[in-house]
Amino acid sequence: MTTTDTSPTAAGSGANASEAFRASAERHGAADTSPERVSTVVSAVLEGVHKAIRDHDVTYPEFQAAKAWLMELGEGGEWPLFLDVFVEHEVEAVAARSQNGTVGTIEGPYYLPGQPTFGSVATLPQRDDEKGTPLVFAGQVRDLDGTPLAGAEVDIWQADADGYYSGFAPHLPEHNLRGVITADDEGRFEITTVQPAPYQVPTDGPTGKMISAAGWHPWRPAHLHLMVRADGHRQVTTQLYFRGGDYLSDDVASATKDDLVLDPAPGDDGRLRVDYDFVLEAA
Ligand code: DHB
Ligand code: FE
Fold first, then answer.
1. What are all long-range contacts of 243-251, with beta carbons under 8 Å and residues at least 24 apart?
2. 103 and 260 Cβ atoms separated by less than 8 Å
3. How many separate domains does the chain show?
4. Alpha carbon nearest to ligand 1 atom 6, residue
5. CA proximity to 154, closest of 264, 262, 230, 231
6. Which residue, judged by its Cα, is nearest atom 7 of ligand 1?
7. Taking every pair of C-alpha atoms in the chain, what is the biggest distance, in angstroms?
8. pLDDT of residue 211
9. CA distance 280 to 101
10. 108 CB near ligand 1 (under 6 Å)
């Protein structure tokens, strides 16, 4: 991918992701954690670190380099980015143990609440010259019994055809490729958008530097992000990927699942079209 001077820097998107995370504290709710549980979990985390040091003969220079890197991670505002790429998938897997219906995956750092709302048939806000293959994404929201969930909300956000998210990349208009669609009386929706490109973790910040120091690649496969909600039902936070796309089997964020891969095909009007239904369990 080419970098232009309007591209988001790691410092820019990292700091915005920190701000967005702080603003979302209420949405995530406070963790009510007893001293016993704090002790158990924190001890286990520290033991994991201690074991890595022993098993791999970590030296003083390496320890000091790690300290400097962690300081940079905080100062660059990249904790949300780093944790969502390398840790969130495991928390999501634990949550998924008790979830029925459509499978979830990580939220990532780029959700923004309060986006424009639309009826059941909508085109996501986009620039007049928005790049990318037009895509019609349609489906139905139902409960576990197959009953349509009238008025369900499909809250969707995605990168553009260059892999950038509005609200985090300064060159993109506010709300670009974001919206909240309300399903009709039969739980149906139809969203017109463009196919996103794969996403690259910003390479100029501490997370990117760690990835390249380890000889890994910084890419996530192209994806749509979704939160699907309906009164009285448990919200699903998930992502949908594209069959045959790059990085599907080696997502840097380890967040792909077989059930979440779309197969768009040209529809009658020549545009790419794909249907995907969501199933929500009662809350
Ligand atoms: C990150 C970015 C994403 O677009 C995503 O879906 C998950 C994680 C990140 O950079 O942390
Ligand atoms: Fe993403």
1. 245/198, 245/221, 246/198, 246/219, 246/221, 246/222, 247/198, 247/217, 247/219, 247/220, 247/221, 248/221, 250/217, 251/219, 251/220, 251/221
2. yes
3. 1
4. 108
5. 230
6. 108
7. 64
8. 98
9. 5
10. yes
Residue 15: which domain range? Answer: 8-282
Instruction: Assess if residue 86 is contained within a domain.
Output: yes
- Residues 108-143: pLDDT tens digits? 999 999 999 999 999 999 999 999 999 999 999 999
Q: Measured from the CB, is residue 168 less than 6 Å from ligand 1?
A: no
Distance CA 202, CA 216 (A): 13
Map 191-212 to HEC letters: EEEECCCCEECCCCCHHHHHHH
Q: Scanning the structure block, which residue is given the tokens 């699907």?
A: 228
Q: Is the pLDDT of residue 1 over 50?
A: no
- For the segment 143-166, the average pLDDT, to the nearest whole number, is 98
Instruction: Tell me whether residue 1 is in a domain.
Output: no
Ligand 1 site, residue 242, Cβ cutoff 6 A: no
Q: For ligand 1, is residue 222 a contact (CB within 6 Å)? A: no
User: Within a domain: residue 82?
Assistant: yes
Instruction: Give the global pTM.
Output: 0.94
CATH number at residue 141: 2.60.130.10
Ligand 1 pocket test, candidate residues 83, 84, 158, most atoms within 8 A of CB: 84
Per-residue tokens: 7: 């591209």
Does some domain include residue 175? yes
The CB of 247 under 6 Å from ligand 1? The reply is no
